[in-house]
User: Fold these one by one.
Assistant:
Number 1:
Amino acid sequence: MIDLFGGHPETNPLDDTDDVQLLDTTLRDGEQAPGVSLTPDEKARIARSADRAGIAVIEAGSACTGKGERETIRGVTSLDLSARVTSFCRGLERDIDLALECNVDGINLVVPASDQHVTEKVGTTREANRRSTVDLVEYATDHGLWVEVIGEDGSRADLDYLEALMGAALDAGADRVCYADTVGHATPDRTLACVRRLAALGPTSTHTHDDLGLAVTNALVSVAAGADLVHGTVNGIGERAGNVALEEVAIALSHGYDVETMDLTMTHNLAQLVANKTGIPLPPNKAVVGENAFTHESGIHTDGTLKDESMYEPYPPETVGRQRRLALGKHAGHAGVAAALAEHGVDVTDEQLDEIVGRVKRVGDRGKRVTDADLLTIAEEVRGTERDRHIEVLDLTAVSGVHPPTASVRLSVGDDTRESAATGSGPVDAAMNATVEALSHEANPALESYHVDAITGGTDALVTVEVEMSSNDETVTVTASDSDITAASVSAMVDATDRLIDGSAVVADD
Ligand SMILES: [Zn+2]
C-alpha cells in the first residue's frame, strides 16, 4: 500500500510549508524538446513574461552549447529581471567559466548520481565523482555564483550514495541540491523517500519528468517531503513526454494547499506565448491552459453552470486569466442556447428557442461543432430576419508559384468598393493580408485563430476554414467551406468582420 503522508490524509500535508518557489527551465530543458529552437528575441520575451509572472528562477540555457547560446543567455541576463537567471553546467570547470562569461547569477550544476551515469556515461567512480563535485562547487562559489547541484538520474541512484554526494555538495558551499527524476521513472513513494533524505540535509529542489504521467504528483510529493524549489516548464514541454508543467504545479499548490508560487492570472498568456514561439500546440484537453479547460458543452453541464458557475468547475477560469465558454453541439440544451443567444443580444420566443435548439442538435449530430455564425444563421432563419450584409466579397485573385505569392481582393463595403493587393508567405496569407488591408478603414479586428479541416480526401476536397476574430470585447467564430482554400479563408474572415462591425452579429429589429 502506498502510504505517502504517514497515514494522516485528513491533515494538510503542506501545512508547515510556507515558501515554495518555481524554477522555469522552458528555455533550457523545454528547448530540448524535439524540433524546438528559440531565437534570442523569443527567449528574451519568454523570460520577461516568466519574470512578470513572479517566477523566482529562470534557467536561461546551457552556456556550453555554443557562442550563439551564450549571446542568448547574455540577452536574458541583460534584461535586469527580478528573477535569478542561471545557466545549466555539466560537471566541468570549463562550463562554469562559460556560464560566468554570460553574467548569470547562478548555475545548475549537473553531476552524475546513478551508477549508470557515474560509471557508464562519465566513466568515473563514485568516490572520484564526489571529490570532483566538491571541487566544482568550491570553484563556482569562489566566483560568486549561486550554486544548485543536480544529481542526474537521482531517482535511479543508490539512495545512500545520493545522500552522500548531495551532502558533500552542501558541505562544500552549494546553496541547494536538486532531486532529479531525469527519466521520469519514479513512483510517488520513491520520490518521497529520496526527497525526504535530501531535504534533511539542506535546501532541496525537485525536477520531475512526465514519462509515467506522474510529473505533477511527484512534484507535489516532493514539496510535501520538504523540497522548496520546483523545476518545470511552461506547458510541460521538454524531452520525451516533457517536464512537469509549471502552471499545473502552481494551480495545484494554490487550489489544493493554499501555497502561492506565481501570479496565476498570467498563466494563460504565458502558455500561449510559449505555444506560439515553440510551435508545440496546446492539446484542447490540457489542464489549466487547454482550449476546453473551461468550456462546457453538454446540456446538463451547461444548465448547471448557468445556475451556479462553480457547479462543474474546480476554480473560476479568471483565476488563471481565462474565461468560461459555453459551446454548442449535440448535447446542447435550452439553457445553453438561450445563454449563447443572449451573449449576442438576440431575443427569441420560447417557440423559436425550441426550434433553434432542435436545429443546433441536428448540426451537432452530424459531428460538427456549432460555431457562433452557425447559431446566428439558424436564429436568423427561425426568426425570419435576414441580416443586411455590410461587407461582401466581389472578386478575389491569388497567385502562387511567384515570389512572393500575391493576392488582390475587391470588396463592397457599404456603398463603397475597396480594392487592395498584398503579398504573403503563401496565397492564403497574401489573400488574408489583402483583406485586412482593404478593411483597415472599416475595422481592425484581430485574427485570434485560424484552422483548416479537409472534409473529404483528394486534392479536390472541400475544406472548411474556421476563423475566430475579436474586436474590443467581442469575439466571433465563423466557418466557411469551399474547394478553394483561399476563397474559404477570405469568405470566413469577411463574414467574421461583418458580424463584428454589426456589433451584435444579428441585425436589430427595425
Ligand atoms: Zn530534465
Number 2:
Amino acid sequence: MDFDIPENLRMTVETVRRFVKQDLEPISRQVEEEDRIPEDVIQKMRDLGLFGLGIPEEYGGLGLGCLGECLVYEEMGKVNACFRTIIGTNNGIGSQGIVLDGTSEQKQQYLPKLASGELIGCFALTEPEAGSDAANLKTTAELKGSHWVLNGRKHFITNGNIADVATVFALTDRAKRAKGGITAFIVEKTFPGFYVGTIERKMGMRGSHTCELIFDNCLVPKENVVGGQENVGKGFRTAMKTLDRGRLTMGASTMGSAQKLLDLSIDYAKQRVQFGKPIAHFQAIQLMLADMATNIYAARQMVYHAAWLKDATNSSVIKEAAMVKLFCSEMANRVADMAVQIHGGMGYMKDYPVERYYRDLRLTRIYEGTSEIQRLVIARELLKD
Ligand SMILES: Cc1cc2nc3c(=O)[nH]c(=O)nc-3n(C[C@H](O)[C@H](O)[C@H](O)COP(=O)(O)OP(=O)(O)OC[C@H]3O[C@@H](n4cnc5c(N)ncnc54)[C@H](O)[C@@H]3O)c2cc1C
C-alpha cells in the first residue's frame, strides 16, 4: 500500500480546492436560498472537467481512477452538497452503467457528452414499492418490433428534472426478476412517453432536485439496452456494480464534509468566549473535537485504502465499499451533531453553515443504500463461502 499521491493528482486536487474556496464557498448560501446553481458556475465545472472525473480518457473524461476521484470528492464535500451532486450523477450512477457494461457504440455516443457536461445523466432504479428491495420494481419493458415499450413510475430520482439521459431499470421477465428478468435501458428525455413528474420538497440538499419519472408507453430503441441485446435480463447486475463504485466516492465526500465541520468547530471554539475564556479551553469541548478528529482520521484511512485497493487490483471491493459508505456516513452525522453542539444556539441558525451540513448529511445514511442495507451487504460478503 502506497499513499504517496502522484503529482498529477496533487495538482488536480489543488485546482479543485482553489475552485471550492474561490467560486463555490462564497455562493453556498445563495444557492441554498435560491435552490438552484447559477449556470455560470455549472459552466466553470464543465471547463474544469468535473463532469467526467470517472469517465475514461478515451471518451473525453479525466479517467482519474478511484483514488483520484475520492480525493476530488473529499474537497467537494467541504462545500454545499448540491455542487458535488450535480457532477456526481454524471461521474457516478448516471454514467457508470454505460462505462461498465455499455457497448462501444453506446460509449461513443453518450460518454463524451456526459464527460463534458453537455448532457446531464441520472439513474432511475427506485420506485414507490422498490427502495431497499430494488428488485421488487414494477416498471415493465416489452419488446414490440424495433422498440422496447416502457411503462411505470420511478421516484426520488436525483437530477431527473434536468437530465438529458437516464439509465432506467425495468422488468423484462416477471418470473426471473433480479435473476435474469431486469434490464437496463438508456432513455433520452426526448423519447416519446418520457415525463418528469413531481419534484419533491426535501429536508435539505437544496440546489439539487429529486423527482418522479413517468414512463407512459415510452418508446426506447432496441439498441438502447445497456450492453446490447445479449444484456437483456442482466440489468440488476449493472445496477449493483454501479452502486458499489458510488459508495467509495460518497464516503470520500462525507469525510470531506466532516473535516470542514471540524475546521469550523475549531475556529468557533477558539473565538467564542464564555465564563471569561474561549470555549476551546473547556474539556467538554476539547473531548468533542478529539472525537471528531479521530473519527475523521479513521474514515480517511478507510477511503484511501479501499480506493487504492480498487485501483491496484481492479477487483470489485464490494465489502470494503459498503464499509466505507456505512462508516463515513454514520461518522459524518455524529460529527455534524457535535459541530452543532459546539456552536450552541448559533449551530441552529441559518446564518452558520453547520445547520445546512447537519440537514444535508442526514441523507447520506439513506440514499444509494441505507446504513442497514450496507450492513447486510457486508454480512453477506463475510458469510459467503
Ligand atoms: C434525496 C434522495 C435522492 C435519491 N436519488 C436517487 C436516484 O438518483 N436514483 C435512485 O434510483 N434512487 C434514488 N434515491 C432512492 C434511495 O436510494 C432510497 O430512498 C433508498 O435506497 C431507501 O429506499 P426507501 O426510501 O424506499 O426506504 P425503505 O427501503 O422503505 O427503507 C425504510 C427503512 O427500512 C429499512 N430496511 C429496509 N429493508 C431492510 C432489511 N432487509 N433489513 C433491515 N432494514 C431494512 C431501511 O434501512 C430503512 O431504515 C434517492 C433518495 C433520496 C431521499
